[in-house]
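Quick review question:
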């Protein structure tokens, strides 16, 4: 069998529970979804963090809580926080998760994901 690396993006930045009722918002939901992906074979969790109301956030504190919980339940998974943020977030806000001693991150330097917003 060929070796492969599975990356699981468990939420995305703009999708809501209206689109998919399984999209995690809370700290606990996010940790649980990461754990389920890990059990299914994911070795990398691409992570977008939400406030409890579902709005995207780059809060370092929120990322810390979620990353700590994921590491506790999935000790050898690589956590890849997004720097994509969401519509309206400036570069400094988008880069906040990189201050958390992360192993891996993505950075879309010229993204067109936000349809004309200045990034």
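Suggested answer, residue by residue:
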């Amino acid at each position: 069998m060929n070796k492969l690396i599975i990356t699981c993006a468990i939420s995305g930045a703009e999708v809501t529970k209206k689109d998919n009722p399984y999209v995690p918002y809370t700290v606990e939901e996010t940790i649980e979804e990461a754990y389920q992906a890990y059990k299914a074979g994911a070795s990398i969790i691409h992570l977008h963090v939400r406030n409890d109301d579902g709005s995207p956030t780059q809060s370092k504190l929120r990322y810390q809580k979620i990353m700590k919980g994921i590491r506790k339940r999935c000790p050898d998974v690589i956590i890849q926080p997004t720097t994509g943020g969401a519509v309206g977030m400036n570069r400094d806000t988008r880069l906040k998760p990189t201050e958390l001693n992360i192993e891996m991150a993505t950075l879309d330097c010229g993204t067109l994901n936000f349809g004309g917003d200045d990034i």
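Why it works: The first strand starts at residue 7 and ends at 9. The two ends are 42 Å apart (CA to CA).
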